[in-house]
């Protein structure tokens, strides 16, 4: 028996550019029309000192034409900083830099932080070292901004791939401007004046010996940041809560806080907001830690993956 045909046009014809929320799961389907202005803006950008190849709709560009081992001229650094603000994350290939050169490059963008809970490169304390193997597996596969438990969190980071598997271990980045833009007007109004608490204990509490718990809590108390921040360079609004470090939304009952955090954190998961970077040895990613969240895919066990990161201290996040 031949199936009866009733379709004479694409099922989407007549729906216009609308998004629909599914009844069972609450997910959204349909075109992400809110991305179009930013995608078109990025496509129009031109640069004097390097070439940038846009990697996704609104986030990520691969930079070529410069060598990060060089002592870059001030105008090159200024233009890279602007490109970072525009693309949210920059990718560089074939950059066999030393640890000292990585730190020198990162320091051109501001003061560097020393992380108290992740082991450093023993010769260069400004570099945290992620050395994964069959014995030390990867647990960074959760969407997050780095160190939001600090009063002055990172504004940017420079990550260098020293040794990566042939397959797996990619890092994904999500545009938190787009994540905010995807919200309905009612949710935007609800979160406009809310604050959230961020706590290092959620991710690093297990590393603190009991005899040093009071010392670490005094040095790194719970901090409060706006749920929605305004980027100090672009003036754009971004969601600034994450699963790793945000404990609750201030002033809400626990169930209401948890429900709202689940909604906001899920915005990073939309594929339309993301770019995925497949690493090769001596690749570098530099990301805006206020505008983007990231997720390190933990799909390479028991292979070895060695990375080093320098983080640039930023201002206190503000509305």
Short description:
This protein has helices spanning 36-43, 74-87, 99-107, 176-181, 185-191, 201-204, 213-219, 254-266, and strands at 20-21, 28-29, 51-54, 61-64, 89-92, 120-121, 124-132, 154-163, 171-175, 195-198, 223-226, 228-230, 237-239, 246-249, 274-277, 284-288, 292-296, 305-313. The protein is of the alpha+beta class. It has a single domain (31-313), classed as Double-stranded beta-helix.
How do the helices and strands line up, and which of them pair or pack?
Elements: E1 20-21, E2 28-29, H1 36-43, E3 51-54, E4 61-64, H2 74-87, E5 89-92, H3 99-107, E6 120-121, E7 124-132, E8 154-163, E9 171-175, H4 176-181, H5 185-191, E10 195-198, H6 201-204, H7 213-219, E11 223-226, E12 228-230, E13 237-239, E14 246-249, H8 254-266, E15 274-277, E16 284-288, E17 292-296, E18 305-313
Parallel strand pairs: 4-5
Antiparallel strand pairs: 1-2, 3-4, 5-16, 6-7, 7-18, 8-16, 8-18, 9-15, 9-17, 10-11, 10-14, 12-13
Strand content: 25-35%
First-last Cα distance: 63 Å
Radius of gyration: 21 Å
CATH structural architecture = 4-Layer Sandwich
By CATH reckoning, the class would read Alpha Beta
How many domains, as an integer? 1
Strand order of the largest sheet: 3-4-5-16-8-18-7-6
Helix percentage range: 10-25%
Give the integer mean of the pLDDT values. Answer: 94
Instruction: Outline the biggest β-sheet.
Output: 8 strands, mixed
Record field, number of beta strands? 18
């Amino acid at each position: 028996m031949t199936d009866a045909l009733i379709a004479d046009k694409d099922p989407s014809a007549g729906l216009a550019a609308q998004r629909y929320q599914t009844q069972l799961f609450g997910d959204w389907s349909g075109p992400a029309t809110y991305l179009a202005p930013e995608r078109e803006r990025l496509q129009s950008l031109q640069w004097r000192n390097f070439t940038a190849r846009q990697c996704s709709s609104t986030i990520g560009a691969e930079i070529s034409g410069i060598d990060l081992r060089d002592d870059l001229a001030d105008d090159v650094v200024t233009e890279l900083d602007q490109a970072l603000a525009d693309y949210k994350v920059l990718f560089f290939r074939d950059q066999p830099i030393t640890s000292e050169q990585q730190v020198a490059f990162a320091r051109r963008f501001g003061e560097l932080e020393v992380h108290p809970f992740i082991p450093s490169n023993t010769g260069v304390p400004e570099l945290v070292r992620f050395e994964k193997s069959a014995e030390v597996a990867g647990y960074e596969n959760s969407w997050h901004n780095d160190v939001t438990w600090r009063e002055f969190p990172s504004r940017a980071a420079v990550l260098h791939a020293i040794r990566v598997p042939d397959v797996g271990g990619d890092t994904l980045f999500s545009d938190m401007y787009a994540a905010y833009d995807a919200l309905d007007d009612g949710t935007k109004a609800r979160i406009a004046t809310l604050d959230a608490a961020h706590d290092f204990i959620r991710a690093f509490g297990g590393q603190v010996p009991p005899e040093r718990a009071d010392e670490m809590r005094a040095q790194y108390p719970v901090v409060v940041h706006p749920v929605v921040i305004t980027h100090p360079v672009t003036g754009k609004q971004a969601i600034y809560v994450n699963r790793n470090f945000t404990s609750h939304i201030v002033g809400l009952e626990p169930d209401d806080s948890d429900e709202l955090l689940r909604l906001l954190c899920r915005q990073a998961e939309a594929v339309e907001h993301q770019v995925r970077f497949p690493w090769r040895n001596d690749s570098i990613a530099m990301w805006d830690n206020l505008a983007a969240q990231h997720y390190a895919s933990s799909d390479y066990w028991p292979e070895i993956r060695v990375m080093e990161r320098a983080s640039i201290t930023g201002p206190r996040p503000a509305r």
